[in-house]
Amino acid sequence: MTEATFPQCRIVTERLLNPETTEHLLNKVVSVTGVRRMVLNGPRLPATVTYGPAKGMANPHVMRQTIHVGDQELELQVHVGTVVLELESRDVIPALKTAIEPVFTNFTFRIQEGRFMKTEPSLVDYCKYGQDADKEMLGLTDPNSKSKPIILQGIK
Fold it and tell me: pLDDT (tens digit, 9 = 90+) per residue, 35-45?
């Protein structure tokens, strides 16, 4: 169980983001101090076809690309539609909005405040990581994923 309750917000766009826009947005988000955790949400982009007659074959999707965030590379595993953030305090939201406004020149976005990530361990967290799970990982577990979440190191 987490000791403190941190504010959360969600960046919602009117369309799914291409990898270049996602990279630009994430670099703006990590430049703002006070962002603790983030989750990228959207339709999954599997590396191989998971069902049907082409099951097991490579899935050459143009949105599955490697992007650079800060000084690290990460492979997009979802077609990003929303970005959920956990913040140190509500005072970060105006700075966040100012930082990301230049990214959205061709379409609109909204920043919604609320509770979007779990704050206490669930059964899935326990099954995937055990009882001594890292508190930073709460709510970031995808029960269907065979890989662990991507952790951006040294960016705060």
Answer: 988 889 999 88
Q: Which CATH number is 126's domain given?
A: 3.30.70
Residue 3 lies inside a defined structural domain of this protein: no
Q: Say whether 94 sits in a helix, a strand or coil.
A: helix
Which tens digits make up the pLDDT trace of 121-146? 777 777 777 777 676 766 666 666 66
Note whether residue 53 is domain-resident. Answer: no
* Distance between first and last Cα of the chain: 22
Cβ partners under 8 Å of residue 45, min gap 6: 59, 61, 63, 64, 76, 77, 78, 79
Query: Can you give the residue range of the structural domain that contains 42?
Result: 8-47+59-137
Q: Please, are residues 39 and 78 in contact by the beta-carbon 8 Å criterion?
A: no
Neighbours of 41 (CB within 10 A): 14
- Residue 142 within any structural domain of the chain: no
